[in-house]
Structure formats: C-alpha cells, structure tokens
Amino acid sequence: MSRRRRVYEGKAKVLYEGPEPGTLIQHFKDDATANNNQKHATIEGKGVLNNRISEFIFTKLNDIGVPTHFIRSINMREQLIREVEIIPCEVVVRNVAAGSLTKRLGIDEGTPLPRSIIEFYYKNDELGDPMVSEEHITAFGWATPQEIDDMMALALRINDFMAGLFLGIGIRLVDFKVEFGRLYEGDMVRVVLADEISPDSCRLWDMRTNDKLDKDRFRHDMGGLIEAYQEVARRLGILFENEPKRRGPTLVK
C-alpha cells in the first residue's frame, strides 16, 4: 500500500487511490477517538473487526438494493469502494434515547422513542460536528431538498434492515450514524451510502443484559472494547477461528 497515493486520512480510516479510475481503497486503522479527538488510543485489532463487520453489513445492504459505495473486500483491513463526493452531513437515526439526546432533552437513557428520529450534523471537526436542520443544509448548499429526501429514505430503510438483523442475534440497535455521497455515473448522479457501519458508528446493547457492545466502552472508560466488538462479530457469524489475542489499548498523548 505504501506505493499507492494517499487520498485522504481520517480518524479511523485512510483512503488510497484505487486500481481503476473511480475507485478507492479504504483502509481501517486501529485508532480509537472520542470527544472530537480529545481522547485517542490505538487498540490493536479494532480496524480488522470494523472492516469485517462493515463489509458484512454493506454486502447485505447491496443485496437488498440499498445503493452503497462498497464493491468488495480486499484483505483483513481493506475494501475496494467507489469514489464518491461526500455530502458534509452526518445522518443519525435514533430508536432509543442515549448519548447527546438524553442530555439535550432530559430523557432517561434507554427510553424507547415513539418512532425513529433522524437528526443531521454538519461534518466539521473544528466546530464539533454541530447539529443542523434541513434549512441549514439547503441554505448553505450542502445538499439539495431531493438529496435530503433520498438520505432520509435510505437511512430509514437501513434502520429497518439493521434493527431486524441485530434483533435476530440478541442485540438492540439503539442508534447509528451514517454518511452519504454523490456517485457520478456519466450524466447521472445518485446518493449512495458511504463510509462505514460498525460498532464505531452504532450504539449496540445486549438485549438481555443491556451491556454496551460499541464505542461507548471507550468513550466512558469501561474497558473491554475489543471483546465487545468481537462479540458482535461472533454473533454475526464472521469472527474467524483461532483469532490472535489482542493487547489492550495504547494511549496516544
């Protein structure tokens, strides 16, 4: 990979130029971040697990007709993806009260919501990814009204699929974050799911115990992040046998 041109590096992934025009290679790092990168650690094996879980979910979504940037897996840490123009808005779908929603509205954590709620956040690390409205998105030209409709419809479809997928393995899908991009195909452009779906971007609770199986374990210094991610992968049936033991997190100052 060192001979390929690096296109972009984020907190958890690196994008390299792909083998063909219009493609990229998405590499999953072992970095864990929280609180807008104020908290940072390297946790060996995290990138491998996120790659496997995201690959599994994106493959299933492709199979049911949800358009995504995912093409195929390359190796334990990398995927071949279509190059898209990322829409600078994170889309959050909430099914159960948790995280910032409980603080903003004074709702007890774990309270089921009357219906799934969609929120938008402007992708800007310096500003702390502030919550925005559809009016902000259209006024500043981040997305068109039709693109917003497409993102909302896809997000709800993804939510329906994933809620059922995780329910079947004893996990509650509390909420999740997704990103979308514009895929240009000749004169046509369409909105597709991009980035990743993994325990880094979802809140996943064990149905029986309410144990957290996601990045909240890192955010709240609970420990056991790798074990939680491995449990999600195991229940999905994608954890390889004879998995090497992982060391604990290495804090990066």
UniProtKB/TrEMBL annotation:
This protein's GO cellular component annotations are: cytosol
The metabolic or biological pathway listed in the UniProt record of this protein is:
Purine metabolism; IMP biosynthesis via de novo pathway; 5-amino-1-(5-phospho-D-ribosyl)imidazole-4-carboxamide from 5-amino-1-(5-phospho-D-ribosyl)imidazole-4-carboxylate: step 1/2
What's an example Gene Ontology biological process for this entry?
A: 'de novo' IMP biosynthetic process
Q: Which Pfam families match?
A: SAICAR_synt
Q: Which CDD domains match?
A: SAICAR_synt_PurC
What does it catalyze? 5-amino-1-(5-phospho-D-ribosyl)imidazole-4-carboxylate + L-aspartate + ATP = (2S)-2-[5-amino-1-(5-phospho-beta-D-ribosyl)imidazole-4-carboxamido]succinate + ADP + phosphate + 2 H(+)
SAICAR synthetase/ADE2 N-terminal domain: which residues? 7-235
The UniProt record lists the EC number as 6.3.2.6
GO molecular function annotations of the record: ATP binding; phosphoribosylaminoimidazolesuccinocarboxamide synthase activity
* Entry similarity comment: Belongs to the SAICAR synthetase family.
Name under which the protein is recorded: Phosphoribosylaminoimidazole-succinocarboxamide synthase
Which species?
Parvibaculum sedimenti
Lineage in the entry? Bacteria, Pseudomonadati, Pseudomonadota, Alphaproteobacteria, Hyphomicrobiales
